[in-house]
Structure formats: structure tokens, C-alpha cells
Structures
1.
Amino acid sequence: MHLVIIGNGITGVTAARYVRKHSEMQVTIISSESKYFFSRTALMYVYMGHMKWENIKPYEDWFWEKNKIELMFANVTSIDTDSKSIRIDDNSTVKYDKLVIATGSQTNKFGWRGQDLKGVQGLYSKQDLEMLEENTRHIHAAVIVGGGLIGIELGEMLHSRGIHVTFLVREKLYWNSILPDQEAAMVSRHIIEYNMNLILGVELKEILPDEKGRVRAVKTSKGEEIKCQFVGLTPGVHPNIDLVKNTKIETVRGVLVNEYLETNIPDVYSAGDCAEIISTEGSKNKPALSTDKSAGKVEQLWYTGKMQGEILARNILGEKIKYSRGIWYNSAKFLDIEYQTYGFVANSPRDREESFYWEHTSGKICLRLVYSSSDRAILGVNVFGMRLRHRLFESWIKEKRTVEYVLENLHMANFDPEFYKKYEHEILEKYNKENPGRNLILRKKNLIGIF
Amino acid sequence: MNKINSEDQLIQIVPFKIYSQNNNVELMKKSGLAVTGIGFLFLLISLTGISSSQPIMFFFLSFGLIAAGSIFYFIMLTKEAPAGIKNNRIFFEAFTSRKTAAWLLGIILTGFYVVLYWYPELMQNWINLVNPLSYWLRGKAADHWFLYGSFYTTAVVVMAIRMIVKYRHNRYQIVRSISVSIFQLGFSFIIPGILVRLNKPEFYFNYFWPLKFQYLFPGEIRYLTSNGEALGYFMVFWGIAMFVIATPILTYFFGKRWYCSWVCGCGGLAETAGDPFRQNSDKSLKAWKLERWLIHSVLIFVVVTTGLLWINSATGGKALGTVSQAFAEWYGFLIGALFSGIIGVGFYPIFGSRVWCRFGCPMAATLGMFQKYFSRFRITTNGGQCISCGNCSTYCEMGIDVKWYAQRGQNIIRSSCVGCGICSAVCPRGVLKLENLPMAGRYNKVD
């Protein structure tokens, strides 16, 4: 039995490792990006000089041979699902018994004039990083289009090289499409604190070239022209499915899969950023995937990629298990401010939802609890500048603990390093003030167990 | 600047401060560095003996300017960017990324140790420089060990200020840096000096057997008890009590960090002057294997040496003659001088700051065994938040591949971990926390 995985990102590698651990199947991972698995989220640290390339490889190079996972550094040019084989760029073919498509994402480009000029690029792959190194040599001003997680990382990267950064953000605050106003304002303030230029409520109109075909400025939707020698396009990503488009494997936005991460073709699976998962609720057998093309969901996070990789492996091994991502979580870092979120926090309270917000006077630490208006059950938390225990919050959300319970036990969830200042009292005080009649106090820690 | 009018409230997004490219700050930083450089220049020319007529003036022109200039420089760094992890350019700068400058520095440091151990007379003019300080503190002339202590303590205290500035957002690092400075300055410099002044045995209360192996050697115990009177007996008692009672108890509650990254002088230097080089430790599995062989061999070596000395002493020298003494001398040369000094500190810029602590220190080996099997200490991981970025492993001075555990959601319990807390500090996702919790469920094997 030969399992071939196209793509060596977190999804493909997680699947390969799980299969290896639980079976003797032959496993091959093919990637045209790099021979060895690396942490995509850590690319920024290589550019900033925090780490070397070797440091962002999660496993030492001997690991793969020892675990009998074959690595192929090659570009897959086509897939033939009839003969169960794939063709790679040296024209050889590789036969498979089971195939996984885990090809990840590509940077969105919305057809702006000048988007393919020299000095204009996104940031996703190892090749992008190498290009960035070239594109940003000896420059002093850059414009970043799109106010999201890759945008802020790219901004931090360029800033570390002494390049002045201007953000063009469509929303009225940074990442306001996801973050509520206060949190988005906090991030925006922090960006300005770094002396980066934050232009809000504008869009990119076009990118202007110089006589050598290199970017010299951008024009905004308000007609303003901003001089720069580099443009970073970070308005999100979309599934990288070019390889699959001319095959019998169905795609819409991504490679269509059911909750078992199976495509419409037997023995072909897909997971991670490139997969579009269709709900199969109610149907027992493999559904006709193309029946409902609008409902697919594409998840493009490191965490979901990892979870899907494992579920995928278990299905390949015959377990028949549905992917469900469980209680949502995510984390990021905006320059110096860490962010964690558990459960679901919309950028403005939805129906029958309320939220409690506390912010420290430093303007760099805050906490938001979102809860249901009816039973006051906690639905989600946003936390900045403070660390909270993931598993504990997850269980509180699952157990539908009330916002009051969560607040009174908040110190139990604190994950900050020792000696850090504690804010639980201040947070409770604010809640008590806003909710007359409430008099919440921190529940004492259980002292038994010190020994 | 920017004001945003949301539906019901006016949200202002003007920060308290804007850290712009500031020429004044650049200038201040440069002048700090220049003062440090001038200090080093004075130190260098003092070697010629030019300072002999004015030792106090030259002491301040060398030690004083180096300290003042660098402290000024560190403080200026706070005006450059907001507090936070700033490891920018570490792998580009020659000094911190094993390029030529790092090798040069390594050779200079190594050369310094060679001269210190075997040709101290070459440094007589430097010794003269600290002579007034020695008279003031100890009431007697300086020797090369006092000079070494002065260098060492200056390095720890000045670079602890750098640590405090660099991690000014992280209270664990601030408290820890203050702790190592106090132990170095107080317990390894001032108190031994005062003891000398009082004609008592020079004793370091923050070093114990087996790191300070002599403290349980029969000869040393005889010396302490006969020369130190009551205090001498206390010193012997202290040495034994710290090893037999305090070590297991404190390690049970806090892990080996209570000593290695809070109290110990070797650790103190590594955590301060060695911090810029921590990323150079070897993280490979091979290095871990070598570490376990070497460190336990040294522990056996020191136990055997101590044992031989006691057998010999008990039999009045009949049992082994001069063999045990020769054994002890070899231990002192190989481990005390070569390993802990020349390789341990001399190679900071190449192998990272904890080579001795990781591969050689018998105290670390003992503490490590307690930490692994009988301690409440562990580094916990925060659910599924790890992104395998590798910052924790890269900045682990002990060469522990922290992310190997973190990405599996497994507690990190390694005998070598000194609990410096930097992995937790550099983690961009808030995944790691140093914790002392009940021992049950400590090893949460996953997969």
C-alpha cells in the first residue's frame, strides 16, 4: 500500500506521521517548496534574524529516514486518477494506492493594475521569503495592502530591517473584520506606536511602475499616491488547487471533500488550507459532493491544518471518523502584543449575545468575554497581552459556565509567567461596577495539593 | 492623529508614545558605546604598567567607564522600541552568529583563561589596578583570583542590567537577574572579601559540593575547622547541609532552577554575560546523548575523587599514598580549569553560554536527577496552541529541543532544564509556562 501526499505543510506531515505511527504503509511526501518540513508561521523569524532556516524545521533531517517517510523534492505536474498515478516535473510517474492533496494556499490578488510588477508580492511560501529578501534589499519604504495576520507579520519583518511601513486597510480599524472595535483599536494604536503609517478606510487602486518596471508608488481609492519601493499584498489567501483543476476531482473554491476528508474520487483525499469541506449531515454514505456547492468551508489556520491532518490519517487507516474542529481557538501576535481567542467572538455582538470588556490603562492588555444573554453561558473570549489556559477555557465553554463563574475563577486560567502582575481583581471590580447588584469575588485556590 | 467614529463611541487610536527613528537616541547609543570602548582602551593600556602610579584613577577609567558606558547604552535601548522580545538580527550579527568576530572573541576569552591559570604574572598590572579595591574590601593585596572575581562580578552585574532592560516586560526575568547579581556580588565577592579581612577562611556560601568539590575534601574540612574556629565549623556544616538537606528539598519544590539560574555564579555569568550567545547551543539529539555521557562521567569522577581522598585520609595515607592526591589534582586541572573555565566560558560565543553547566557540572547532574524524578517543577504547554515555530528551542541555552514537546502538548521535564524561563518569554503564542505543581500526572505522555 503506497500513500502519496502532495504537500509537506503541517497537514500533510501530520497525516504522514500519524499513518507511520499506526501502520506499515509506504509513505511518500512530495513538495516543490522545500525537501524538509518547516514551520510556515516561522518564516518571518528567519527574515528578522531571530532564527536560521535550520531552526524552523520542526524535526531534524534524519527523522524522516528513520521513520521511513520518503521525501521527494519535486513538482507534481498532473494527477491521473484512472491509472492512480501522478506525474512529476522530470516526467517520471509515481503510482499511488491512496493520494492526499494538501497543497495549501496562494496569496489573493484581486486584479489590481500593477500587481505583477517587480517589488510586488505576497508572503506565503519559502520562495516568497527568498523573493522578499531580493525585493527589499536597500529599500526604505514599503506599503502593505490588507490588514490581517500576515499583514502585521510582514510589517514587523520590514520594520526590523529599518524599512518604513505604510498599511492600507479597508476597514476603519486594523483587522476590524474579525476584532471588535476596542481590540482593533488597541492593535491600531500599537502599530502607530511603532511609527508605522496606518491608513484606514482605504483600498488599493493601482500600483504604479517606474521606467524599469519596478513599483515606485501606490494609488489609493482616495486618489492619494504613496511612494514606495515595495508592495506587500496580504489581503488573505485562497486554496492552491491549480494542480487539481483539470482532473476528475471536484473543486469549487477548494478541493471538495466530505467530513471524512474524502473527495469524489475513491482513494483521493484532501485536507488543510486547500480543502473545502462540505457538510454531509444526514447522509450515511458518501454523498454526491457537488449537490451543495455553496456550503463548503475552507479553514486556513495552522491549527485546523494539524487537526485535519490527523483526522485524514485516521480515515485512510480505515477508521471512518468525521472532522469537526471542536471549540474554535486561535492565537497570534501583533508586534509585541500577544492574542489568544477561545470559543467565538464576533466583531460586534450578535443576537442574544452580550459582552464584557476590560482594558488595562496601559492600553496594551485587555479581556473580552462574550456570553449568551439568556443563560449567561460563556461563548468566547478574546485576550490580549495576557495568557489564558486553553484547555480550561475550552471546558468552561463546553460546560456552559456562566460569565460570573468564569470571572470568579479567572485566576485559575491565568497562564502568564511567574511574578507577572495579576489583573483579575481589577477585572472583577469593573464587572461589579457595570452590573449593580453583582458582587463577584475571586474563588480561593484549592490549597490542598501544594505537596 | 487618527480618530475613529464608531456607532456609539469615539475610539481614539493615538498611542501614548511613538517610537520614531530618532537621531538623538542613535547618538546617545553611540556615545554609550564609545565610552565603553574608551574604557576597554584604558584597560588595555593599563597592561603596560602606565597605570601603576595612579591605580585608582585607572580603575575608574577602565572598569568604571566600561560599566557606565554600557549601562547608559542599555538604558538608551528602551527609547528605541516598546518593550517586547527583540531578537532582531541575532543571526545576522557576527558576534552572535558564530562568524569571525565570535571566533575572535572566543580566542580572546580562552587566552584570558590560559593566562589566568598558568601565567598570572603577565597580568600583574591588571592585578595592581584592583589592588586599592582589594585593600578596601579585604584589607590585603590583590592576587589574580581577586582580579578574576572583579572582572566576573562586573560582567554579571552590568550584563544583568542588560537582561533587565531587554526583558523589561517580563517580571520573571527581572527578578531572576536581580537574584543572580546579588548572589554574585554579595556571596561570591563581598562576603568572601570580608572573611579574608577578618582572617577567616575565604568561603563561598553559594557554592557547594560537588560543584565546589574541595568543600567536602578532607583537607579542606580540616583547614576550615582548624582556621575558622566556630565559623569554620559552621562553614563545614553549611556545605554539608546545603548538599544533603537544602538541595533535595528546594529542588523538589522549585526544580533545579532555584540554584542554576538564581543562585549559582557559573549560572549567573551564563544568564547575564552569556545571554547574547544562548542561541548557539547545540539542539541535536547527538548533543543530548553526549551531554548525558559526559555530565554523569564527571559526577562519577568527583565522587570517586572525594571517596579516595577520604579513604586515604582515614587510613592516614597508607591506603593509597599519593594516588588520591594526584587524582584530586587531575580533577582540579581537567574539570576545574579546562572544562569549566576555558571551554565553559571561553567558548561562549561558539557553543553558547551553558557548555559547562550542560556537559560538565556535577552539581547540575545531581540536581538534574532530582528534577527528573522527584520534583514538582515542569514546563507546561498550553493546549493546542503551538505553531512549531522553533523560538523556544533556538533560545534554550541548555540545547533542549523544547518544541519537540510543545508541539505534542507534552510537559517538558528534562534533567538539564535550568528554568531560565526564556522559552516561555520568546514563545509568540503563549504556549509555555514554568510551573510547580503536584507530582501526579507530571509525565503526560502523549501519542
2.
Amino acid sequence: MHPLWHLTLARFREFYREPAALFWVYGFPLILAFALGLAFSEKPVPAASVDVVQNPSDPGASEKLVAMLACDPGLKVEGHDEATCRQRLRTSKTDLVIVPLPGSSAGYEYLFDTTRSESVLARNAADRAILRAANPAAPRPEEKAVTEPGSRYIDFLIPGLLGINLLGGGLFGVGFAVADMRVRKLLKRFQATPMRRSDFLLSLMLSRLFFTLVDIALLLGVAYLAFDIRVRGNPLVFVTLIALGGASFAGLGLLLGSRARTMETTAGLVNAVMLPMYVLSGVFFSASRFPQVIQPFIQALPLTALNEGLRAVMNDGAGWEALPQPLLILGIWGAICFTVALRIFRWR
Amino acid sequence: MNPAIRVRGLVKTYPGRPPVEAVCGLDLDVKTGECFGLLGPNGAGKTTTLEIIEGLLDPTAGEVEVLGMKWGENDNEIRRKIGISLQETRLSDKLTVYETVALFRSFYPSGLTPDEAIARVSLEEKAGSYVEKLSGGQRQRLAVATALVGEPELLFLDEPTTGLDPQSRRQLWDVIRSLKDRGRTVVITTHYMDEAERLCERVAVVDQGKVIALGTPAELIARVGGEHVIDFDYDPATPVRFSANDLTSLPTVKSTREEGDRVTLTAGEPHRALPALLEAARTVGVKLAGLTTRTATLEDVFVTLTGRHLRDEE
């Protein structure tokens, strides 16, 4: 059998015969996705709390207000004396206090907290309810609730997790593996045989490709079953992006592992590269939150390009038009990393 | 017939302050079909020399010819014809013995089947076991199996039995002897003199980057003055000690060496030297605490040549 086949088989065997590796590579991302999805799952907007001040000497005024507000099911109305109402507003137990003022032009006034969004929204909702109740003849536009598919947090998160899975696979699966073989003097041992270097490096890439496909299929499958995550765009573009990301990160991993003589150095290099991308590349939250001044740097990172491409295809239904940007960035990173790695690779 | 290995003026210097001269002008000739030993303490430059000959290290200066070919000109051809076993290689733990040997076999255009190679090192029972489950001796035998699976003309074994228990060492010696029987050229580095004496037809004693003696074990032992050694210890309370002259004037005594209370003599005929020694002790009034006789070993060769022990360096 061809040595390339033997070498690739050896990579497979070393992986699936190590139960700890199987857990960390496959189990952990799934658990992470599940936990985050659960924590950030969409909940309906809660009802606004409105308190109406009750004046024992003029009960009719507050009753009229309560009746008008009752038309809006998004308002939860309660009646209390003035002192209690103000206390509740101060302690955020209610979002708005309406005080009936029989002598004024409107007949009532609003007390609310301008710094709390629930308070401002409650004021808007209550005002609208009262005005509509006073003008029953005014035309009412139709209301259609629209939820865009792919707009949940979990839809944002999963492509990011796919991205860091590919990154981890390349850096640990290739970089760490190669450094480990060097430390164990296995590379030196191979060097004394007629084994072709290209066979060795190709076996790393082939095994990484296979592991990547299994990995992504597993993550997507579980995400579909648990959260109804779909690839809404062109599936071919999706697969191309995955392959592109996997190959580019494998090159990055190879570069990081190309000379390190100890596992500590390798771990340091891998973390130094991976962790900034975890934070900056828009994995858990949008990268646009970072200040404008570092955006060019963030956009140049390979993980950012991959995540944005994956999101465009999975959530926005994009097709081939989503490919050029990630292709360019990931392609350049991959090409540079592979070229430099091959030049500086240390076999001893 | 051309030598299997030819080395002239080998120099290897590692950069540093001060630079480390691992090998300083080493010459070597290994004949085809012989079992050649490089004997010396740790740090003598044996492993460095071996790795340069194996093509794993570049020399700073000097000529190296392996099987009539030079590194840098016929690399792949040389690699097809040699097999090596390094010190401390950890092969993949998660592969079986068979899978490991098959992997190495796939690199060579021709050679033994993995089963044959495994049989040569007597690991048939463990063919399906994971490497991590093997004992130290079994791992070394596996390493030798990977070295010979390509049916190389020339085998390099770097410290093949270091760190092994006596039984494993003997098993590995049997493997190496069977290689010799098949006419392979084998180069072994070792710091065990019994290994060098048992296995090697010729031995080069290496110290501090140079070959300080070369010959068959018997020749080397004879060079330091006889195959017989008399060791005696002075009683610490002895009133008198021998002078060097007293000792070398004894019949057939070739050399003497003193270390603390222990004196080592090499003698051509102990049946004459011994009575003379005891008579001299009685006459001069020297009190002895113990006396043994034994045959000389390469250890004695080394100590005579360098004034240091092989084992002290461990």
C-alpha cells in the first residue's frame, strides 16, 4: 500500500483511539452550543406595568383611564394611592405612573423614568392606548407580526462556532500533532527513511479534511435537531467555505508547529493566535461592536472572513456572491502560511 | 572490497559561548559485513558521529561516504539501503506493533513483510498490541524491527540496550547476532563494554570527539598489557605501601594503576605474578585487605587510555 495511505491511516488511528481527543473535539463544541443557545433563547417581550393614581375623592377619573388602557393587552394596569405609585416607580416595580388631573387640559399627566427603556416604552404604549380609545373612528392599520428566519442569537452563534471549530482543528489537529511528533523524535526517525516529505504533509491535510467534514456534519446535524438551524443559502457555497476555512487554518497550524521544539512553546503560539480571534472575529457577538479604529485589522483576520461568509450563506441565504471576500482573505493567509511553513520546517 | 562507511576528518561544532566541539577530527572505516562498535562514555560524540553518518545532521567539516555514496548527492538511494534505530524514539502509542512495522515498510521499495520483520525480533505474540502496552525491551525490539523491515545493507543501532533489564538486553543481543549471521553490516554505539565485547568484531573507543583506540576487543585489551587483572586493596591501617617500581618489577606485570586504596595490576601470567606479589607484601610489611583476579575488559582499556571510567560519566 502506498505510504500516503499508511500515513493517513496512522493519523486516523491515533485520533479515534484516544477517547479524550474525541470528547474535546466533538463533544465540547456541541455542549457549548447547547448551553449558549439555551441561555440566549428568545423570550417574548414582557408586558409594561402602568400604575394609575387613585384619588378617593374622585374615583371616576382613574376608572376612566383604566378602562381606556385595558384595550391594549400589552399593558398591565394597577391602581394605587399616589405615595405607593411613586414608590413603585422609584423601585422599578412599575414602568409608568399616570396621575389624573381633572383641572388640566389633557386631564392627566405621566410620571416616568427617561433613563429606563421599559419606562419610555410604557409611556408610549399608554399614550397610544388612551388616544386610540378617545378616537375610535381613526383608521387602524393592520398589524402583521414578522419574524425573519435566521435572526435569533443562536442563528448568529452557530456559524461562529463552526468557524472556531475549524480554527481549533487546524491549529491543534495539525500544529500540535506535528510539534508532538517532533518532540518524540518521530520526525527525525522518518527523516532517515526514504519517506517523501510531500507524502507526510499530504497525510496531515487529508486526515484533517476528513475530520473536518465529520466534525461540521455532526455540529450542524445536532444544531438542526435542537435549534432548527439551517443553511438557507447555496449549500455548495457553504461546503466550499468550510473546505476553504479548514485548509487555510491547517496551513496556519502547520506554520505554528513548524519549528517549535517543546509542547509548551507550541501551546503558547497556538493560544496567542487563537484567543485574539475568539474575541475579535465576531464569534459570540458582532465584531462591529469594536471601535472603528481597529475594524480594518479585524476584517483582515481569517476567522472574521470565514464567520461573515458562513453567516451570509446560512442566515441571509447568500449564494456565490458571498465567496470572493472570504476566498481572498483565507486564500492569502493559507498560501502564505503554507509557503513559509514548508521553507522553515524543522524535522529534528 | 569498498568499506561500508568511510569517514575522514569529521568535525562537528555547535555554536555557543564557548562553542561546543562535539566531534573534533574523527576518522573511521567500517568494513562490509562486520559488526562495528563505537564505545565511549556519554558526551563522547558517539551519537553525533552516528547521526552525521546516518544523514540526520550536517557536519561542520570532513568527508563521509556511506556504501560508496555521499550525502547531498544520493540521499534517497542511501536511505533505501540503511536502517536506523535512534536513542529514545517514542513511536505512536496508539498504533499496534503490526501497523507500525507496516507503516515503515511502506516507505521502502522492497523488503520483508511486516510479519517477517516482527518474527525476526521475536515479537509475534505482541503483533496486535498497542505500542503503549509494550515493555521497554519490547519497544526496543520494535524499533529494531522498523530498522530492518526494508532489508537494509547497513544498520545503525544507537545505544540499543540502554536502560533495559538484563533479560531484555540478552534478547536484543540475540537479534543483533542473527543480523550478523545474515551478513549485514551493523554499527552499534554503546557505553556497555560487555555489549561491545560480545557483539563487535572491531571497536573504536571514542572520547571527547576523537577515536583514541581502534581494534578488535582482544587486540585492545592486549595493548594495555595483558588479559589478566589483579585487584587488591590496601588495609587502611597498613604501615607501608608499595612503590610503583615495586609493582612493575614483579614477574609479568605490565602496568599498575592506583585509585585510593585500590591497586589494579595487569599481568601476563598471574600464576607467577600472584605469589610474587604476596611474597613482596610479606617482605615489605604491606597489609592487604582484599585481593581478586579477573580478566581484563574494555573498561580497563578505557581507564588506561583516558584515566577515567566509562561508568563515571553516567
